[in-house]
Specification:
The structure holds two protein chains of two kinds. Chain A is α/β, with parallel strands linked by helices. Chain A contains 26 helices and 25 strands. In chain A, the strands form six sheets. Chain A has a seven-stranded mixed sheet with strand order 5-4-16-15-14-6-7, sandwiched between helices. A six-stranded mixed barrel of chain A has the order 20-24-21-23-22-25. Chain A has a four-stranded parallel sheet with strand order 11-10-9-12. In chain A, helix 8 crosses helix 16, helix 11 packs antiparallel against helix 13 (301-308) and helix 11 runs parallel beside helix 16 (342-356). Chain B is mainly alpha-helical. Chain B has helices spanning 2-9, 12-37, 48-53, 58-61, 76-83, 88-91, 93-103, 124-129, 134-138, 155-165, 170-177, 179-182. The longest helix of chain B has 26 residues, at 12-37. The chains are: A alpha/beta, B mainly alpha. The A-B interface holds A 23-25, 27-41, 46-49 and B 32-33, 35-40, 64, 67-70, 72-78, 101, 105-112, 115.
Chain lengths: 724, 184
């Protein structure tokens, strides 16, 4: 074209073009998109609107209530249930991340049979065959040859299995969880029994205390009921017109996330926590001028100061603070009890509460109310677990059923669980994920994910009221999985005889209804119902059942009249460092397969996606160790290799490794990442039968290698070159 | 050059050729424009009249109308729930399409007819709650094959009704004539 387009013509043409575009664009055909209605409509679904379901969190056994937002049959957001007295509408990061469990690409999608344990050579099984396997295992073995190993959640399944084993005269199901081991729950319960004549988890009223001495209790992380205690902590920190802002003093060898927010961190030598408590008790008694109680009479303050590494002046100052406080509270945490003298430590620390006179007082020590339904379970101590392992090893057990727990990963390797499994002819796992234990099973008969499940969970502590948190499916199961309760009921019906008689329920919900029956007529609940179906509707709507009004009980007894002499813990093994393994505050014991959790920087070190070894810079300098140097940690029981993180908030004689990584199975996000500190742990026990986890000595060897840790601190992602 | 063209234009055949060419271009343009202004075909020639004649309530297939914003379209399973039992499904050619959708677990890509622009937030629920029946707005659907709007769904039509029905209630009138009631 030779003629040049003038400006005026160009605008004319452009205008005409735009007019054509508008004319055609406004036409119906451009607006008429096609609608895609459901091929199969999810129940109770409103187009374009969310549906909310109340259920219970299964990420730990604390029984926090959840309300899950669902859209078009998909769970899209987890929030706390405001009505549930345990968490009052809050959740922790692990609860939020439960969606990553639901949508995890590595979930087991249908029943599997494994040819050769650990081979990963799985073949699909149909449900009829799977139920046949369970039914035959229950029927063809003598009752004494059947063993059930269950996790700490869910409770309805424990109750069902308990009924089942009772009916056929098999040994009661054993319940275990890494959290209860790390928290030494059995020791705490036993100490309460020794001092106050009643076993059970005490309730620490942090919210109304004004001074908290926490002996390694990581109550803002994973301890007992972290959401409830975090709420208590925030209440304590709020100044009120009647009360000043509370103070938190944390006694622990390694500063935890909880220790990091404390007013003061006292780096006590591992194993001397009881001694420190007694010394403080003696000084407090002396300040108050009352006659010295028998419990504290036997301790020498100067010796305690020398043993624990806390200067005497500090002890005096802390004792003064404790004596001056209106509502002081002392809490024994997991690491203080996971020692050879753990039970005595627990008693000594609990006795500080009796000295302060806070038993049954606001801001003091209570007994948690009994759950609304009778509870026949207790977490197994390590002694009970070794008993079970011995039974497995000796060939007494012919069929082992495992649900809700991953013992191959969660027990110290030295205890030999994996080896003992070899002597069991039939191992059936009900795992949702291909975890280490499922990989050692003959059959994997997958349960639904927690968000697809029915159930209930008793709140053992954390709320002032008796609480039964209810669970219901928030989405229809995505895969060809089946509720383990339904599988057992179907297998029992098929086996016939005593089994079928004892469990005449058509499904899991019918069983849950039968258990809830007594609550229909129990007064003082949040709702009333004339019969069980109406009751269950409210139970689902409210997310459980709880009694109105506080039902905390006051511990009675004379703990101050008891002679307490915890002494110093004996450390196992040789080496220059105490080994402290702690539950990762973010991952917990089973969070490693959730990328949201892996991606959260650890609250104290900001490390992500890996394991690390915390060592004091002075100790590291002595060994010539820098950040990211890979070291070999050697103990009596084994060795692991991992990168160093120079952590200033740890005693120079202590090293720490988080627990949660180091999976050899458990899906693509967890597998082959980091190390498991339990590989190092020698299975020494304390007096209550719990693992003396924190009383372990290890040595370090340099490997000369380096592995860069992904961490937020001082770096731009993992690529930054700016070493601090 | 121009001279030659003038010569040519006097021949009748040339004039007819030009006319045909012009007509072809215009009809092509017209057809193009027409396709942008008409609705695309429905995947199944759905006869509303037949279903209403069988006594099926509107809310059976569009249950969203009384409880939510959108009346909703029935899921394939819902159609198939009845149709797998009716003998007509075996013989009708049109229903073979439905059978194919149901067997493959596919949703039926219906073309919406009653639709409003995105800046209008229409909600069925308050209209049903106010005692309106479906036919008040959607016309005699029972006499239609594929649904057609009985009137243009524009703002004037909405407001005429809102005015008429709130004559005795000034407070309600303010609310129902407020811009923000539908445009938010």
């Amino acid at each position: 074209m030779t003629k040049k387009l003038s400006r005026r013509e160009f605008i004319k043409l452009a205008g005409a073009g735009a007019a054509v575009t508008v004319l055609t664009g406004c036409g119906p055909a451009a607006r008429y998109v096609r609608r895609e209605p459901y091929a199969l409509m999810p129940e109770y679904n409103y187009n374009g609107q969310s549906t909310y379901y109340a259920t219970t969190c299964r990420e730990c056994p604390a029984a926090c209530g959840l309300v899950v937002r669902t859209m078009q049959g998909r769970a899209i957001k987890v929030e706390g249930n405001q009505r549930n007295p345990v968490n009052l509408g809050k959740t922790c990061a692990r609860g939020q991340a439960s969606l990553h469990g639901l949508y995890n690409p590595d979930r087991i999608r249908n029943p599997l049979k494994q040819a050769g344990r650990g081979s990963g050579n799985f073949s699909d099984l149909d449900w009829e065959a799977a139920i046949q396997v369970v039914s035959a295992a229950l029927k063809e073995n003598r009752p004494s040859e059947i063993a059930f190993l269950l996790g700490l959640a869910p409770d309805h399944l424990f109750d069902l299995v308990n009924d089942l084993t009772k009916a056929i005269g098999a040994p009661a199901p054993v319940r275990f969880g890494a959290l209860s081991m790390f928290e030494s729950r059995v020791t705490l319960s036993q100490a309460a029994q020794n001092l106050f004549g009643k076993a059970g988890l005490p309730y620490f009223d942090i919210g109304r205390a004004d001074l908290v001495f926490s002996f390694g209790a990581n109550f803002l992380e994973t301890w007992l009921s972290p959401v409830a205690y975090t709420r208590g902590y925030s209440q304590m920190r709020k100044g009120q017109s009647t009360r000043r802002r509370g103070t938190l003093i944390q006694f622990e060898a390694r500063m935890s996330q909880t220790g990091a927010v404390a007013d003061e961190w006292i780096p006590v030598r591992p194993g001397t926590e009881g001694l420190v408590a007694l010394a403080l008790g003696r000084l407090v008694a002396e300040i108050s001028g009352a006659p010295l109680p028998k419990a504290f009479a036997g301790v020498d303050v100067a010796a305690a100061a020398a043993e624990s590494g806390i200067p005497e002046e500090t002890l005096h100052r802390l004792a003064k603070q404790y004596a001056d406080a209106t509502n002081p509270l002392a809490i024994p945490g997991g690491a203080a009890l996971a020692q050879s003298n753990g039970l005595k430590n627990a008693e000594s620390i609990l006795a500080l509460n009796a000295l302060a006179g806070n038993l049954g007082q606001p801001g003091g020590l209570f007994f948690s109310p009994a759950a609304p339904l009778p509870d026949e379970s207790h977490p197994a101590s390590l002694a009970e677990m070794s008993e079970l392992i011995q039974k497995l090893e000796s060939g007494q057990v012919k069929a082992l059923f495992i649900h809700g727990v991953n013992p191959v990963f969660e027990l110290p390797k030295a205890l030999g669980f994996e080896k003992a499994l070899k002597s069991v002819p039939l191992v059936i796992s009900f795992a949702t994920f291909p975890d280490e234990t499922a990989m050692q099973a003959d059959y994997v008969i997958p349960d639904h994910h927690g968000l697809e499940s029915w159930g209930y969970q008793r709140a053992l502590t954390g709320a002032g009221q008796p609480v039964l948190s209810g669970a219901q499916p928030v989405v229809a199961p995505y895969y060809d999985t089946r509720a383990t309760a339904d599988v057992l009921l179907a297998a029992a019906a098929q086996a016939g005889g005593k089994l079928a008689e004892a469990l005449p329920f058509k499904d899991e919900v019918a069983y849950i209804q039968s258990r809830l029956l007594p609550l229909v007529t129990t007064p003082d609940g949040p709702y009333t119902a004339p019969e069980i179906n109406t009751f269950l509707a409210s139970f689902q709507q409210y997310g459980g059942w709880w009694q109105n009004g506080e039902a905390l009980t006051t511990p009675v007894g004379a703990p101050l009249e008891k002679t307490l002499a915890p002494g110093v813990a004996e450390a196992h093994g040789k080496g220059e460092f105490f080994l402290l393994s702690f539950v990762s505050p973010v991952l917990g014991e089973a969070g490693a397969n959730k990328p949201w959790l892996q991606e959260i920087p650890d609250p104290t070190t900001t490390v992500m996606w890996n394991s690390w070894l915390e060592i004091h810079p002075a100790a590291a300098d002595e060994l010539g160790l820098h950040d990211d140097d890979v070291v070999r940690v050697v103990s009596e029981a084994g060795s692991v290799e991992l990168p160093v993180y120079r952590y200033p908030a740890i005693r120079p004689d202590t090293i720490a490794i988080p627990f949660g990584q180091g999976h050899s199975a458990y899906g693509r996000y967890a597998q082959g990442r980091g190390v498991n500190p339990l590989d190092l742990v020698y299975p020494a026990l304390n007096e209550a039968g719990d693992l003396a986890l924190a009383g372990m000595k290890v040595r370090l060897e340099k490997t000369g290698r380096k592995q860069t840790l992904a961490r937020l601190e001082s770096r731009m992602g993992v690529y930054g070159e700016d070493e601090h | 050059m121009l001279h030659k063209l003038l010569e040519l234009s006097k021949q009748p055949l040339f004039r007819v050729g030009v006319l045909v060419l012009v007509l072809a271009v215009f009809s092509g343009l017209g057809y193009g424009l027409y396709t942008t202004q008409t609705t695309p075909p429905q995947p199944i020639q759905f006869p509303h009249s037949r279903h209403v004649a069988l006594g099926i309530q509107c809310l059976y297939c569009h249950p969203g109308a009384w409880r939510q914003a959108s009346a909703g379209l029935p899921s394939t399973q819902k159609c198939w729930g009845c149709h797998q039992q009716t003998p007509l499904t075996q013989t009708s050619v049109e229903l073979q399409k439905l059978a194919a959708y149901a067997e493959n677990g596919m949703s039926i890509p219906w073309v919406p007819v009653a639709m409003l622009p995105d800046f209008v937030h229409f909600n069925h629920r308050p209209h049903i709650a106010a005692g309106l029946n479906c036919e008040n707005c959607h016309g005699e659907v029972g006499k239609m094959g594929i649904y057609e709007n009985p009137q243009v769904l524009n703002m004037g039509w909405c407001l005429t009704c809102h005015r008429e029905r709130t004559q005795d209630d000034p407070e309600k009138r303010i609310k129902l004539l407020d811009c923000g009631t539908c445009h938010y």
